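Sample 1 of the test manifest.
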Amino acid sequence: MTQAATATQPSAGNIPVTRGLDGQVYPDAIATDPYAMGWMQGEPVPLNKRIAFADGSNYRFPQFRWAFAHARQLAPTLAVRRADQVAAAFGRALDESLWRVAFQPMVGDVRMDWSDLLKATYTDAIIVMHRGRVVLEHYGGVMTPERQHVSMSVSKSVLGLVGAMLLHQGVLDEGAHVEHYLPEMAGSGFAGATVRQVLDMTTGIHYSENYADPQASIWSHTYAGGILPRPVNYDGPDSFMAYMPTVKPLGTHGHEFTYRTVNSDVLGWIIRRVTGRALADVVSQMLWQPMGAQDEGYYTIDSCAIEFAGGGFSATLRDMVRIGELIRQRGSFGGQQIIPESVIADLHRGADPTQFVANGPPTLRGWSYRNMWWASHHVSQAIMARGIHGQNIYIDPRAEMVIARFASHPVAANMVNDVYTLPAYAAMAEHLRQT
Amino acid sequence: MTQAATATQPSAGNIPVTRGLDGQVYPDAIATDPYAMGWMQGEPVPLNKRIAFADGSNYRFPQFRWAFAHARQLAPTLAVRRADQVAAAFGRALDESLWRVAFQPMVGDVRMDWSDLLKATYTDAIIVMHRGRVVLEHYGGVMTPERQHVSMSVSKSVLGLVGAMLLHQGVLDEGAHVEHYLPEMAGSGFAGATVRQVLDMTTGIHYSENYADPQASIWSHTYAGGILPRPVNYDGPDSFMAYMPTVKPLGTHGHEFTYRTVNSDVLGWIIRRVTGRALADVVSQMLWQPMGAQDEGYYTIDSCAIEFAGGGFSATLRDMVRIGELIRQRGSFGGQQIIPESVIADLHRGADPTQFVANGPPTLRGWSYRNMWWASHHVSQAIMARGIHGQNIYIDPRAEMVIARFASHPVAANMVNDVYTLPAYAAMAEHLRQT
């Protein structure tokens, strides 16, 4: 780690100033290092260094640079049991020269390299694997290889994998309507939507997800689940399952993709209903156990102990990269087919990109969203899981490359990360292909 | 499990009515089975079936029959990492006829057997080992072999083991005063008390622990740590480390034993100070890792992420019985001396029983308290860890027997359990000695 830390000192001048979508300027990654800032240090911790759920400081920058790596110390959680038989660690072929791999961000007139990337994107931890071996690994701030970090919407992709596997097993029918599994949803905007439409987020529902808008539905959703402190005098739904049936229809199911987190929680509820088990147990049984996860994962939960399927999953980076490597290996690990190959092929094939054009993120032109994974439709066959503030699993089969990354970028919107990470990942892939 | 459940149906009439120290009658174990009562079941869970920290229902009977097995789903927690190399499960020589082993409780005119014991003491889970093999194992209600359960003051004994090991290593000096390690405590009632006096709870401090008294210090202590919801307009200390220095002196250090939980939290703070690590990490490194713990343990924590050393530890029963078996094996496991033999000998030797007479529990006449373990001074050399509402690790070297038990008895006071468990354990020991 010391070696990596030394190699990743910033090249002065190559780190653009961080601005929010509204132009607000944020202090940089070095100034907000959570360890240096002294969060939760002291005996007792001084009041101005404490981080808590109740006052919202756990989701406030720069405090969340500590909080993202300590979710279970701040709120109730449910364990995703680790493998009884932990897999051997991946082989290592560390190459510190890779920190010098250069790329051109999508915006700005600056040439950057990978050591700049860490700082520009407030990266807490990153692993790059090539041909099944670890070639770069770095932990900054309060992160360690054993520490779980929030994955935000990477949670959706973990869930989507499980959903696609259950489709393959015939436990779920992609043509069945939501209300077939969840009669509670018959009066909601999800009525008439198929499991496939939920998985690909082409449901026609009234649900906004602009993180910069305090009135957006995503906040009502999280207040219902108690994932953020509720406003004073809150009298809305008091659980995810009370919230979901209140979502109204908007437009037509199956016509176009729109990114709406509630689809993931509906999928989580469906999976719970058909398996009769907690989502945490299903993820453990179908992924964590067979892939030999090193550590437990865990979910933040609501007042009914129901997992926040759309964004509440924490795990270690080494287990996250293992998911990516499992996909790169077409679902096979240790001679076992953990994920059916047809499920992997479906992820890479993606959904219909024409349904993605209207509402897809501007940084992902030409992509689509399939089984809660982002598919590039690029010749590399790259796919990606991504979560706000900079969480990623990125798989480039052509370059035989897998990247997992945790970050605590001050700006939630993925596109603020994408403008650096996507060119950086592409440059690394090109570099590795040639070695 | 099914077999055990069948074998442990109550013998009608042999289960005494449960009464509190004030005479209050409680519904029995069958009527309050947490699964049958439907706690936290339903999608969403009906309001009258929810259990939460905020409203205190997590520490209310019969709700706590569910909550004791779900502490991490109700509050922030800190993990005690399980062993990277999990030990092989103990051999099994199950003998269901042992449920018929009979005993005479300390009170009442009734003859009971071990299947009655489970019901009379609201036992959630129990394991009996003989000569290193499991001879009885039972999980009731919501418990399973993989589920952690609160251990209450068994937490102290886990900590005391670690403290005694650190003394043996010379990291701690049993003659040093509390303020030598913790200058913050120089103005408190602990000033002038030695580490040995803290370990054996012979400190002279003003701290009451009558669980039936709402004004008892134990409640101020837990409110400070936020382990129970604070009263409205609470303005007391807001962390364990803010509370401990406020404890006043009473009497003389080193003269007599008095059971006061705050000693354990002071010991926890000292251990943190000398190791420079979180208690959870120390317990993992010194016990959980070397003994090959099957599952992680975890601590409930305060607003500074400091462990409730005196009562906040949860673990699986199989890991708890492993501690007991490790002690029975004189600290040796798999050819390694995990706990120095002299530390084990010291536990069995106990403290000075004359210092125990005045304030020792009436059910433990002739015993003493050493390194936060209860020593019987009996020819069997039995020692015990015990926590309110019925938590136990019991080691009888002469009978080559170890028992671990989790329970959710409606009455906190240990003596309400002791009147059944101590005769039952003695009867089982006698029975096993003869086989």
